[in-house]
Specification:
With 221 residues, the chain is of the alpha+beta class. 13% of the residues lie in helices and 32% in strands. It has one domain: Pseudouridine synthase, CATH 3.30.2350. Strand 9 and strand 10 form a beta hairpin. It is globular. Keywords: Isomerase, tRNA processing.
């Protein structure tokens, strides 16, 4: 059965934070707790996509962030830009980095390369499955450690883009993301009030002007 923890959707009401815009694309700093796209239920319709549509009626979302993840979310302002963005994501020429706080001390940098599949009995959870899973790879780099809290700050670079990839991969190596209610065994043993995962960097070659676009967003944690 799907996981049901009595969830009530209460998205933050902060004004839309536009952090990049040109003639073809617009990027926002999505707050944690806001859906990237509307859910099926009426009460889940409020989303980053609908909020962007209020300002840019032709906008199309180019990728997604989990509801609990904050940070850079890129939209195309017209159909040609949407097609171009889709091709860049497929070719993996759009670079994305995330900042996360994870449990424990990470002593070395490295990569996680294990396949993932939906855990249908407990969806939306994803699990490692070496026979049926789809390839998934994440690079990680430790950029800080708080010995009092036993928490590492890590830079994460997804090579692939599987659902919950960063969250499952960090759990797999024994360093679950702090306040992750799906994958941390004790998610509430922290003073954080949100999951500590933030999309902090996105770059690509602008397909119409051939200009390098770099977008940066600092996490609140």
């Amino acid at each position: 059965m799907p996981i049901d923890d009595g969830f009530i959707y209460q998205p933050p009401l902060d004004p839309l934070d536009i952090i990049f815009e040109d003639a073809d694309f617009v990027a926002i700093n999505k707050p944690a707790g806001l859906l990237s796209v509307p859910g099926r239920l009426v009460e889940h319709h409020d989303s980053a996509y609908f909020r962007v549509l209020d300002l840019f009626p032709n906008a199309k979302i180019t990728h997604r962030l989990d509801m609990a993840t904050s940070g850079i979310l890129l939209f195309a302002k017209h159909r040609d830009a949407e097609v171009a963005a889709s091709k860049m994501f497929q070719a993996r020429t759009i670079k994305k980095n995330y900042i996360a706080l994870v449990q424990g001390k990470i002593n070395s940098n490295g990569s996680v390369d294990v396949p993932l599949i939906t855990d249908w009995e407990n969806r939306p959870r994803q699990i490692v499955h070496f026979e049926l899973g789809k390839p998934a790879q994440t690079l990680f780099e430790c950029i800080g450690y708080d010995s009092e809290k036993d928490v590492s700050r890590v830079l994460l670079t997804p090579i692939t883009g599987r659902s919950h990839q960063l969250r499952v991969h960090m759990q797999y190596i024994g360093h679950p993301i702090m306040r992750d209610k799906l994958y941390h065994p004790e998610p509430f043993k922290t003073d954080l009030n949100r999951m500590a995962l933030h999309a902090s960097y996105l770059s690509f070659m602008q397909p119409f002007s051939n200009e390098l676009i770099e977008i940066v967003s600092e996490p609140e944690f």
